[in-house]
Amino acid sequence: MHSVLDQIASMCSETKNTTSWKISSELIKFYKNKQELPNLVTLANSCFVSPSMITKFSKNLGFNGYKELSVKMQIEIIDRSHKNISTIFDNSDSLFKENEINAINTIRDFQLIKEKLNSLINLIKNANKIYIFSTNYFSDVAKLMNIMLLSKGINVVYMNKLNSMISIFDNISKKDLCLFFIGGSGSDEINFYFQQLYNKFQVENIFLFCTHSKIFKFNYPNNSIIIDTDFLSHNFFERTFSLSYIIMQIDLHLN
Hints:
By secondary structure, the chain is an alpha/beta fold. The protein folds into two domains: 4-82, Orthogonal Bundle (Arc Repressor Mutant, subunit A); 112-253, Glucose-6-phosphate isomerase like protein, domain 1 (Rossmann fold). It contains eleven helices and five strands, in the order H-H-H-H-H-H-H-E-H-E-H-E-H-E-E-H. A five-stranded parallel beta sheet has the order 2-1-3-4-5, sandwiched between helices. This is HTH rpiR-type domain-containing protein. Pfam families: HTH_6. One of its GO terms (molecular function) is carbohydrate derivative binding. Residues 27-77 form the HTH rpiR-type domain.
């Protein structure tokens, strides 16, 4: 899709007093003044048009409605300004907006691993059975992956107990897929079993999600995703957000 700011700016050169000219001129005014974009009703009132005309204007630009249009504009404004988020939005909620933009940038950053995600999705589709191993640190998101795969009717086993891993280790075949979620302290045992499976099977049988610090423990960069990014702090909640987004994408592509 073309730049929405460029599209709106071009409408300002249209004949004055048309509906499109009124709306586009008002939106550009907010952009130039570095003000937060108004809501649907406020914008309609300032343009002396009905809210339905704002919706129609947004749909003519290819959006579902004004909310989607305004979000796209906000992202572009931030990209172009290269300034701190607090210079664009009200200072009272600058931290909220900063976290919001960092989350958006993290999602964009995951575009770089699209090929790896597509590869993982194909591995999931072709596996006879899927085994999910996790450290305690990532047990919640590993369970989320387990629930998602079960909802698709996929044969999956989840475990984060060392004795459980030992008991099923010899039952894993080359037609199965092993997913590892590794992070936090106390993961040396799972690291060991990961390496054992790596030695036993071909690379395609294993996929690893891990933190930046743990990836250096493995000579295994191909089928792995480092869930830490440059935009979010490397703590539990940000990592959970990143992994949850990845699982959501897998879920959508398995439909």
